[in-house]
Specification:
The protein is of the alpha+beta class. The protein is 46% helix and 18% strand. It has 16 helices and eleven strands. Strands 1-2-6-3-5-4 form a six-stranded mixed beta sheet, sandwiched between helices. Strands 7-11-8-10-9 form a five-stranded mixed beta sheet, with helices on both faces. Helix 1 packs across helix 7. The longest helix has 19 residues. The radius of gyration is 23 Å and the shape is globular.
């Protein structure tokens, strides 16, 4: 399977990949603008906008948006991240034109009815409240804030309740006007699709949009720091972050292999040492996340107040040890996990369409799958050890603690333990 990419004169991009044998397709519009593109006083507006897209357009009511897709057995959804807002649908092959029409309608023609804004504001405030009541969810927002204090990259996607309570139609329209431009839009489709037909439909719908100059987001500046929220919970939730590579960094794949070997599965060092050998937690994991110009290696676990000190110390010990004795077998296993995850994700039209959009946003093209696998396979043990050593010896990490964390070790103590 190979992808096709077409760019319209106004900068709007269309990328598709036909998957023979499938009877369905995923189609969506990805906008390369998310929460890090917001101004401080409008934090949460990108996510609010995503909600409002489903509350009615010039041609469809909120109910009709849902009915038109569900009447043909499909589904429609959206999400907001720090760098992207996506609107997408999954339908049978014959309903791809309908899905494209509905998705483009909610992106281009939302009406922002004042009554619906108030209704959805209450929904989002409930969503914020739910997140605050979910420790293993909110702690990652706090970790992000500790890593990038006072910056767009450090602000939450949902936004603070007090800001969401003030947002109105003018804020929504302002964000659309600044960021929902053709040069920031990517139409991605995968499955039972024909590239030329999708391009023709996209030309008719999006070709008339006026190109405009686009400002980039505020550059991210990793600073690191600590946030501790003491609350009477059953567990202390522990999250620690280290400055990692961005998407285009030479260390991107090395960081992923390192994080997978360290805490990416049941065979990983952290899982085996801290859960299996010591029984200090139910789950512990590490991951590498990247953005356009920055990234983070994150470690998360939950444990009792009595055992948080031992868990945190052992985590630092394993990181220090991995920098010197990561084995060939561990690195090979991590590479295999990454290859399998990549290939399994491509068996879904939705996963494939999202990958197409993400790669076009990053590289302006879709690298061949063999190229992606070759980059993973090129990561060797010595590169992983070197990356681990630089991580251990690097700058200020970020730490977030939530729960009965009054006696938990602080960032200074953990850094000292990491340094040996």
């Amino acid at each position: 399977m190979s992808s096709d990419l077409t760019t319209l004169p106004n900068g709007f991009r269309i990328v598709t990949e036909t998957m023979p044998g499938l009877a369905s397709a995923a189609v969506g519009v990805w906008i390369t603008a998310g929460s890090r593109h917001e101004r401080p006083e409008e934090n949460g507006v990108a996510h609010f906008l995503e909600h409002m897209a489903f509350k009615g357009t010039e041609r469809r009511s909120a109910l009709r948006i849902a009915e038109e897709i569900e009447d043909v057995g499909g589904y429609i959804n959206a999400y907001t991240s720090r760098e992207t807002t996506a609107y997408y649908a999954r339908v049978l092959a014959e309903d791809v034109p309908l899905a494209l029409d509905v998705v483009s309608d909610i992106v281009l023609n939302p009406v922002f009815d004042p009554k619906e804004i108030e209704t959805e504001r209450h929904v989002i405030l409930q969503e914020i409240g739910q997140a605050l009541d979910t420790p293993d969810d909110i702690i990652f927002d706090w970790l992000q804030e500790a890593a990038y204090p006072g910056q767009a990259m450090g602000r939450t996607i949902l936004g603070p309740a007090e800001t969401v309570a003030r947002l109105g139609g003018a804020d929504l329209r302002g964000f659309v006007g600044r960021h929902y431009r053709p040069g920031r839009m990517i139409l991605a489709a995968a499955g039972a699709v024909d590239h030329d037909r999708v391009v023709a439909a996209a030309q008719a719908i999006f070709g008339g949009l006026e190109a405009a100059a686009e400002d980039g987001p505020e550059p991210a500046r990793w600073q690191g720091g600590e946030r501790r929220e003491v609350k009477d919970l059953e567990q202390v939730h522990f999250a620690m972050g280290f400055a990692g590579p961005g998407y285009r960094d030479a260390d991107f794949h090395t960081a992923q292999v390192y994080a997978t070997a360290l805490g990416g599965g049941m065979s990983s060092r952290l899982f085996q040492k801290i859960r299996e050998e010591r029984g200090l937690c139910y789950s512990i994991h590490a991951q590498s996340g990247s953005h356009d110009d920055t990234g983070m290696i994150t470690i998360y676990a939950g444990t009792s107040a009595e055992e948080i000190g031992e868990l945190a110390a052992l985590t630092m010990d394993e990181m220090a040890r991995a920098a010197g004795d990561m084995t060939e077998a561990e690195v090979a296993r991590a590479r295999a996990q990454m290859r399998a995850g990549l290939l399994m994700g491509l068996e879904s039209p939705s996963g494939r369409a999202e990958r197409l959009a993400r790669l076009v946003a990053i590289w302006g093209r879709v690298p061949d799958l063999a190229e992606a696998i070759a980059r993973i396979d090129a990561v060797g043990r010595d590169a992983v050890r070197d990356f681990g050593a630089r991580l251990v010896a690097g700058g200020q990490p970020a730490l977030a603690l939530y729960g009965p964390a009054g006696a938990a070790p602080g960032l200074g103590a953990l850094r000292a333990r990491l340094a040996g």
